[in-house]
Amino acid sequence: MLVQLGSMGVLVAVLAFCVVWVSSDTNKYRKLVWVTLFLTFDLIMFGAFTRLTDSGLGCPDWPGCYGHSNPLLAHAHISAAQEAMPFGPVSVKKAWIEMIHRYFAMGVGVLIIALMAISWMRWLKSRKQPMQRQVKFTPWFPTLLFFCVCLQGAFGAWTVTQKLQPVIVTTHLLLGLTLLAMMAWLAARQSDHAPVAASAAGLVKPAMVALLLLVIQIALGGWVSTNYAALACTDFPLCHGALVPQMDFANGFTLWRHLGMTADGDFLTFQALTAIHWTHRSFAFVVIAFIVWLAWKALRTAGLQNTGRWLLIVIGLQLFTGLSTIYFNWPLAIAVVHNGGAAALLVLLVMLNYKARLVPGRHAVSAAASHSAIVESLNQHP
Predict the structure, then answer these.
(1) What's the pLDDT at 110?
(2) Tens of pLDDT along 238-253?
(3) Does the annotation mark 98 as catalytic?
(4) DSSP 65
(5) Which residues, 6+ apart, have CB-to-CB distance to 120 below 8 Å?
(6) What are the start-end ranges of the H helices in the chain?
(7) Of 16, 123, 150, 186, which is least packed with CB atoms within 10 Å of its CB?
(8) So where does this one cross the membrane (predicted)?
């Protein structure tokens, strides 16, 4: 079974390698990084789809499906479970959604292993080119990515074996987004960027604050999703007709408990779900206001205008999809797009942090290195 599952992951990776191979980009490593970033983003979107369709237990074991590598071989077990619980978590459709998500995750894992192997090989081959070795092919970051994807896989297994315990599912989501942010950083490091104005240095701290605020908001959103609290408030801007409704923060934000239960084993109250939803909704306005201000500052900074423009577009999309989930009673497509918007904001803020913090310095180092090389050449050939 493990060999068959691994083969599915390799197949996904081979398709990505084919895209890189036929690409006109001469820097195949850089292209592979960007393709892996794109697939990691897609994986997060599909993970949201898996969670929102309640397919997380479509196959209640791990890594296979009732001990098999695909739902076709496990059809008898799935049919028996569905017959015993017609409205339960197991069905043929949910099993396929869950297993496709796992195949996809394995493929991304194979690509990250390839990135790590290539970076180590190039690092060892570039001993005679110290500057190239330092900037482009440092293997430590791809190696850290490998350990991160292994940890993510472990939490994926615990998500199933612990029966969708909210803290584990939320941690699984946050680790997936951490992986996405790391891939975005690696992609930024491999790419060439337009010169950035010196005034970008003033955005270093605000960009970090914006990233921190977004991570908190994503964690709150994950907590809403994993506790199925999206419809705890169905009106806006009020919640149950009040600006501050009756809420139970103590049970709502108790981390270590089973799904739908309090830490004491009682059923989670509606007031607890309201507290979860209301906190995410209220904090969203803080995040939106700060990111809009940061995007406006980026629009006025040479080299950051494009990133600032996209930040405004995506934050507007997030506001629209967030409100739409309330007004239109949580439609699946909009809810998935809302998750994707959060991931896109994360990538954009990582890129902004990279450009504001590292790109000006890297250009300065490169210029100094080029000047030193010219001087040394002149000294050797007067």
Answers:
(1) 96
(2) 999 999 999 999 999 9
(3) yes
(4) B
(5) 139, 142, 143
(6) 2-22, 28-52, 75-84, 92-125, 130-135, 140-161, 166-190, 204-226, 249-252, 270-299, 305-327, 332-357, 359-380
(7) 150
(8) 6-23, 32-52, 100-120, 140-161, 167-188, 200-220, 278-296, 308-328, 334-354
What's the whole-number mean pLDDT along residues 300-325?
94
Residue indicated by tokens 């607890």: 272
Range of the domain at 246: 194-382
Do 136 and 213 reside in the same domain of the chain?
no
Regarding whether 299 and 254 lie in a shared domain, the answer is yes
User: Is residue 100 located within the same domain as residue 203?
Assistant: no
206 and 76: one domain?
no
Q: Is residue 148's pLDDT more than 50? A: yes
Out of 16, 44, 55, 98, the active site residue is 98
pTM: 0.89
Residue 333 tokens read as: 């497509």
56 and 172 Cβ atoms separated by less than 8 Å: no
DSSP string, 81-92: HHHH-TTSS--H
Residue of 211, 221, 287 whose CA lies nearest to 44 = 221
- Give the other-Cβ count within 10 Å of 152's Cβ: 21
Q: Are 165 and 226 in contact (CB under 8 A)?
A: no
Residue 139 is classified by DSSP as: S
Do residue 177 and residue 297 come from a single domain? no
Q: Does residue 254 come out as left (phi exceeding 0), alpha (psi in the -120 to 50 range) or beta?
A: beta
Q: Rounded to an integer, what distance in angstroms lies between the CA atom of residue 209 and that of residue 294? A: 10
Q: Of 175, 191, 207, which marks where a domain is finished? A: 191
Task: Over range 314-328, report the average pLDDT.
Answer: 91
